[in-house]
Write a structure and sequence with these properties.
With 116 residues, the protein is an alpha+beta fold. It has 3 helices and 5 strands, in the order ααβαββββ. The protein has a 5-stranded antiparallel sheet.
Length: 116
């Protein structure tokens, strides 16, 4: 009978025939290494979305507010990250971060709105 080795540490595996790791620690360690790059991308994207959401929430206390692009930039807002887009029949395009949205107005102003 062939002895199997742990994919993470190389130790001998005892137990079920389809077992790949000697311990839960080795299984977790191996999977964390394998998924590290994709997890970093997801973590960084979620952090960026969270920061943008926080900025909109802080600036839009009343539920409807007008702010300048400069004010958003100064707080660190990144216009490349949003969760959805809503286009009205009149052609206005609202960008949303969950329930906080913004609409570009003329003269570098933005209308911040909160969807209830």
């Amino acid at each position: 009978m062939e002895t199997k080795q742990c994919l993470e540490c190389g130790d001998k595996i005892i137990g079920r025939i389809d077992k790949k790791f000697c311990t839960d620690y080795c299984r977790n360690s191996y999977n964390n290494k394998v998924n590290k790059e994709s997890k970093n991308l997801i973590r960084n994207t979620n952090n960026r979305l969270r920061k943008n959401y926080k900025i909109l929430s802080e600036l839009n206390v009343s539920g409807k507010t007008k702010v300048t692009r400069t004010k958003l930039f100064d707080k660190g807002f990144d216009f490349n990250y949003f969760t959805s887009i809503y286009k009205t029949k009149t052609g206005n395009v609202y960008y949303y971060l969950y329930n906080q949205g913004y609409l570009a107005l003329e003269s570098d102003y933005f209308l911040l709105i909160k969807r209830e």
